[in-house]
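As a warm-up, study this chain.
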Amino acid sequence: MSRIHIVESATASPEQSALLDGIQAQLGMVPNFLKVFANSPVALKAFLGLYGVAGAGELAALDRERIALALAQQNGCQYCVSAHTAIGRKTGLSSDEIAAARAGTSDDPTSASILKFARSLMEKHGDVSALELAEIRSAGISEAQIVEIITHVGMNFLTNILGKASLVDIDFPTVKLDLA
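Now compare it with the structure written out below.
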């Protein structure tokens, strides 16, 4: 049971209802973590704005999902691991690619470099070394993509801590955090 109220359309304020209706129209559902965000329409608008803009960047959709999976696993957010496993499959990741991303790697060398950098950003709270930046650049990652990786790390950390703090009910097929 969620430790933070889940806003349902039936009891939502007009502003919350409009936001939830927009999400429903776009996704065909309103994930529970967005219903938690809806407690603060400002926070929900901020997240949706960042999510929408960040999704239009240079990073490939598969790499964005790999980052989400790697960080959800690293941060121990079962809701996010479950959600991004489902979203990753829909985006085109195979079961093997999902497992690899959760472990922080990929068979694709560029994607592996992206995940290594993203996990290091999370682990070191952004305090990555000049060597790590040189390595990601040598993998062919542009300055714009580096900034987008940082953006996705921040955005996924936000959703991971919301999921963990709220213990929001998982409304995707549940995936265990262990990789066994």
